Amino acid sequence: MSTLQVPVTDADHIEGDPDAPVTLVEYADYECPYCGAAYSVIKRVQKHFRNRLRFVFRNFPLTQIHPEAENAAETAEFAGAHGRFWEMHDALFENQEALGPALYVSLAKTLSLSAEALEEALEHRTFRPKIRSDFMGGLKSSVNGTPTFFINGRRHEAGNEYEDLVAAIDAELATGTNRSSAAR
């Protein structure tokens, strides 16, 4: 069983109670249709577990098959630098079929972010180091496709449907173990 090799830190995008007994880490690609399907599943899982679940999103753009994946990730990171990561993350997945420069600019404006600053960041690849860091961390953790989930530092090998994730998180809660050092 693979384990998470890069611990969760303040540099990650985290939603939920920092002291939640379960941490769910997702490596994902904004253009991946399976990640798009997992997006709504994760929202339901978060609602189900509320303060018992901490969710962490990491970029894993598969650029050879998804040409907009990296630009979408950079757009989300740009928004994150302005305190709007989760809004942009959600909007990108909710508009996955329209990924491209026009959408990024439109979403930036909707979130009251500078479209010009976003275009400049994309042109200069300002957020590529953060995305590369996430990607390399995924490779170290044996991520080879998206979405890939880790629950308290251990790779989730079962399906990515709502029932699968709920069962795995329930099992983790039942063991009474706290987040492993790898998940922290």
General description of the model:
The protein is an alpha+beta fold. It has one domain (13-175): Glutaredoxin (3-Layer(aba) Sandwich), CATH 3.40.30. The chain is 47% helix and 13% strand. The protein is built from seven helices and five strands. Strand 2 (22-28), helix 1 and strand 3 (53-59) form a beta-alpha-beta unit. The two termini are 18 Å apart. Mean pLDDT is 95; it is low at 178-184.
Helix/strand class: alpha+beta
Q: Averaged pLDDT, please?
A: 95
**What is the CATH-assigned architecture?**
3-Layer(aba) Sandwich
Strand order of the largest sheet: 1-3-2-4-5
As a whole number of angstroms, the C-alpha radius of gyration is: 16 Å
Relevant terms:
single chain, alpha+beta, Glutaredoxin, 5 strands, 47% helix, disordered C terminus
Topology summary:
Layout (H helix, E strand, L loop, with lengths): L12 E4 L5 E7 L4 H17 L3 E7 L9 H13 L3 H10 L6 H10 L4 H10 L3 H13 L7 E4 L2 E2 L6 H14 L9
Parallel strand pairs: 2-3
Antiparallel strand pairs: 1-3, 2-4, 4-5
Summarize the structure.
The protein has 184 residues and is α+β, with helices and mostly antiparallel strands.
